[in-house]
Amino acid sequence: MNCQIFRCRKLRFAGRSVGPRADAGRPSGVAIPLFVLAVLLINRGANGIAAIAGESASVARPAAAKERHVAATVDGVPVYGDQVDRELELVLKGRKIDPQSRQELQAKTLQQLIDRELILGWLKSEGQAASDQDIDLSIQRLTRELTQRGQKWEDYLRSRGIGEEDLRRLKRWQLSWSRFLRSRITDENLQKYFDQHRREFDGTRLRVAHILWKVEPPFERSDLEKALAQARAVRDEIVSGRSAFADAARKYSKAPSASAGGDIGFISRKEPMPEAFSRAAFELDAGQVSEPTQTASGVHLIHCLEVEQGKKTWSEARSELEEAAAVFLFGWAADRRRGVASVRVIDDSVPGR
User: Fold this and answer.
1) Which listed CATH number (3.30.40, 1.10.4030, 2.40.160, 1.10.3230) goes with 32-194+320-345?
2) What global pTM score does this model have?
3) Of 172, 274, 281, 319, which residue is the least packed, with the fewest Cβ within 10 Å?
4) pLDDT tens digits for 6-62?
5) pLDDT digits (tens, 9 = 90+) for 311-346
6) Helices 318-338, 164-184: inter-axial angle, 10-degree rounding
7) What are the start-end ranges of the H helices in the chain?
8) At residue 317, what are phi and psi to the nearest 5 degrees?
C-alpha cells in the first residue's frame, strides 16, 4: 500500500552532521550528528513500551506548582520546554556539549517534536491515530509490568521526570507512529527504496579529494559568504580546465590533505566524513566536482576520483534501509499537515527549566 510514497522525493537527512574525521577539521562543539539525533527521536516511537519503560531521563519535570514553559504550539497543542530538554538528554546520555551546540540541538529537537504533532494531526485526519482505548490498554500493560517488578506507578513517573498527561501523549505518538511504519515499511517498498538509492546502501565506496576553506564557529556571515565565493571561483577554474583539482587543493586548501592534492582516500556513505560532505560526494560520478558544500568545518569542493561499486543486496542492508525509510516517512508525513496546521514557535531557545 502507498508504494508511490517512496517516489515522491529524495531522502533528505535531518540537519547536518557535525561528527567529522580529523581531516575535515573537528569542530569544537557537539560530536553527535543531527541525522543520528533525528533517527533516535523518530524511532523512539517505534519501540512500544520499551521506548519509555527502559529509559532513565536525567531531566526532571518542573514541580506542579511551577508553570511550564511553552516552547511552541501546534493547532493549540503545547510543546513544552522541559519536553525538549528531556528528549535531548535521552539522546545525549550525559554527554557534555558547548552552549552553542546545545542551542542548535535544542532547536532541532523542538522541530522534531513539532513535526510529531503535525504527524499525529495528519494521522487523526486519516483515521490512523491511536485511540484513547489503545492508550489505556498500553498503560495497563505497563502498569502490570511495573507491579511485577515491584515498582509503584508514582515512583516510575517521578524517576523519569514525566507526568501522566505527558506519558499518555508519548504513548499516543508511539502507538500511532509504530502502526504507520508497519503499514509502509514493507519488503516491496524497501526494495524500491534500495533501487532508487542503491549507492547509499550497497556498500559503494568513493575515493575523493577535497579543498577546504575553514569557517569554524563562531563566525560572521560575511566570513561564510567570502568562503563560498572563493570556492565558486576556484570550481569555475577547475571545471573550465584552467586549473587541475590537485593543484588548486595544494594552493587553497586548509585541510591536512592539501599536500596530497586533497586526496583523502576512500569513504563510505555514512563514514567517516560529515553527512553533508558524504551526501554531496555520493551525488558525483568519477571525475566530477561538487558545488561548494558547507559542513561544521567550513566550505568544501569535493572531487570524485574513483568509484568502487558495492555488492550488498537490499536484504543485507535491511536495517539501514528501515532506518532511512523511517526518517523519510517522518518528513513526508509531517509535510502532509505542515501547510494547513497552525504552528507557533514561541521560543526556539527552549529554556525548559
Assistant:
1) 1.10.4030
2) 0.70
3) 319
4) 444 333 333 323 233 334 433 333 333 444 444 445 554 444 333 333 333 334 444
5) 999 999 999 899 989 999 999 999 999 989 999 998
6) 110
7) 34-43, 50-53, 81-92, 99-125, 132-148, 153-159, 164-184, 187-196, 198-201, 221-239, 245-252, 275-281, 318-338
8) -100, 20
